[in-house]
Design goal:
Two copies of one chain form a homodimer. Helices cover 41% and strands 22% of the residues of chain A. Chain A is α+β, with helices and mostly antiparallel strands. Chain A folds into two domains: 91 residues, Arc Repressor Mutant, subunit A; 50 residues, 2-Layer Sandwich (Dna Ligase, domain 1). In chain A, the strands form two sheets. In chain A, strands 1-3-2 form a three-stranded antiparallel beta sheet. A three-stranded mixed beta sheet of chain A has the order 5-4-6, with helices on one face. In chain A, helix 1 runs antiparallel to helix 2, helix 2 crosses helix 3 and helix 3 crosses helix 4. The longest helix of chain A is centred in the N-terminal third of the chain and has 14 residues. The two termini of chain A are 32 Å apart. At the A-B interface, helix 5 and strand 6 of A face helix 5 and strand 6 of B. Strand 6 of chain A pairs antiparallel with strand 6 of chain B, so a sheet runs across the interface. Chain A binds a DNA duplex through helix 2 and helix 4.
Chain lengths: 147, 147
Amino acid sequence: MATAPKSAWAQHTRTTLEAAGHRSGAARDAVIELLARQDCCLSAKEIADQLAGEGAGVGIASVYRALETFDELGLVQRLDAGEGVVRYEPALPGGEHHHHIVCDRCGRVTAFADEALERAIDRVSKRLDHTVAGHDVVLRGACPRCH
Amino acid sequence: MATAPKSAWAQHTRTTLEAAGHRSGAARDAVIELLARQDCCLSAKEIADQLAGEGAGVGIASVYRALETFDELGLVQRLDAGEGVVRYEPALPGGEHHHHIVCDRCGRVTAFADEALERAIDRVSKRLDHTVAGHDVVLRGACPRCH
DNA sequence: GTGAATGCAAACTCTTTGCATGACT
DNA sequence: AGTCATGCAAAGAGTTTGCATTCAC
């Protein structure tokens, strides 16, 4: 599976935003840069805190608005692992994606991918009356550090 | 697959609660009765509203406390389908379970079960470093009514 | 110059907690 | 009688919205 460089996501995101008629702005740009550097998902608060730590004082509202825009354009994937926090991560243009396992004890979120699982989900999707547009799988259990 | 009658859940729940040293009470009993009648998942607010509609004025705090207790005892399954609301449904004693598909447009939640999907998840679980204790699958897409 | 993007603060929703009252064993 | 369960209200956490200002085009 050919993996696109992470920087490609930032590029793709800016292009898509412009095509959708959005202007560029400092806050949203900072969120793009931060997300592009990420391996896995972040919550809105984590994004705001991290940007604040870097000196870029981005209002939390702007973070939420940026994430909402990205979501509408399919540029990020929302991940709700329970615990009342929504996390976001870049959605790769190629459609490749992964799922997550959440540690019961420390709350750490780790990514994993599995071809067979994807195929099983595709097969189920065809069987159902719904028009399945997307899916999420969340596993729960103790991570290696917490064993 | 032998399916236990829904009333069995209420019975099992009351037994388990008593064994765990809990007293019985009107509010929690009402929640048990309501959940036992349900085919699929309900949010705390839906439970409270429905009970209020039936004349049983159960405080929302009691609903949350009951659900928390059930969850600790493994009597319900929590389901977080995004949208910032947690839903609960009776966990069948046999361990059989299903997953959910959420309509993009109307928000309706429907249940489905699939053996092959379960097997795929089991296989992935063994491969990972985590001790996988549970899992959730949420599909998203337009339901038949919203096509 | 116009309108979108931003930031602050207030509003909202869902959930949890403190505390006095009432109910179960 | 002693505790636990309940309900109300207040507190918290996460997210959204209103509005004036700033910035991109």
